[in-house]
Amino acid sequence: MTATENAGTIAGTAGADGGDMRLLRNRGLDLRDPEREAELTRLFDAHHHQLVRLAALLGAGADAEDVVAEAFCDLYRRWNRLRDPAKAAPYLRASVCNQVRMRHRHLAVVRRHPEPVQPDAGSAEQEAVLREDQREVAAALLRLPERQRQALVLRYWLDLGEREVAETMGISNGAVKSHTSRGMAALARSLEQRR
């Protein structure tokens, strides 16, 4: 059977009225939405590398690329519920932050019940991102409390304003200032102790 005949057979199973496709569309799974596809492709091209670096700096380790892929999958699934497509990039940043946080929680539980595991090797992307001169700062960032690390990376590495950081983290502007200030002080102390 040729691809055309196969497509006709699949389309034919939906009935003359296209009921199966309508059912998928009603569930928010329109498989033929070229605008969504184009916008997600544009977002991926514009933000993927930056989001992988964000995840790596927040402590995702070798899972940084997987965290970002999951964020894009979540956005793809929820695209029809997104009120403003301009909010897609902040949604992706918040999703990456949340997934790294969930990963840390999961790892805390796993550490309470240790199993012999082979050490995790860094991904090629992660290694390329963290040049030799940045490793010390990245290591010091990983020693910070999670919220302080997120605030510093979003504020200074991604160069987001306080309002954008607050939106991404789901906290107030004042809390961003507090996390940023405490994080900078702790980071400075940590780096001085290492020297």
The string of secondary-structure elements, in order, is HHHHHHHHHH
Residue fraction in strands:
under 5%
Number of helices: 10
Low-confidence stretches: 1-24
Overall radius of gyration: 21 Å
Number of strands: 0
Shape designation? globular
Q: Compute the separation of the termini in Å.
A: 70 Å
Number of domains: 2
What is the structural class?
A: mainly alpha
User: Helix coverage percent of residues?
Assistant: over 70%
Structure description:
With 195 residues, the protein is an all-alpha fold. The longest helix is centred in the middle third of the chain and has 25 residues, at 88-112. The chain is 72% helix and 0% strand. It folds into 2 domains: 32-129, no CATH class; 131-195, Arc Repressor Mutant, subunit A.
Secondary-structure map:
Blueprint: H1 3-13, H2 19-26, H3 34-57, H4 64-78, H5 88-112, H6 124-129, H7 135-143, H8 146-157, H9 162-169, H10 173-194
Helix pairs in contact: 3-4, 3-5, 4-5, 5-9, 8-9, 8-10, 9-10
How is this structure best summarized?
With 195 residues, the chain is mainly α. It has helices at residues 3-13, 19-26, 34-57, 64-78, 88-112, 124-129, 135-143, 146-157, 162-169, 173-194. Helix 8 packs across helix 10.
Give a quick set of tags describing it.
mainly alpha, 2 domains, 72% helix, disordered N terminus, 195 residues, 10 helices
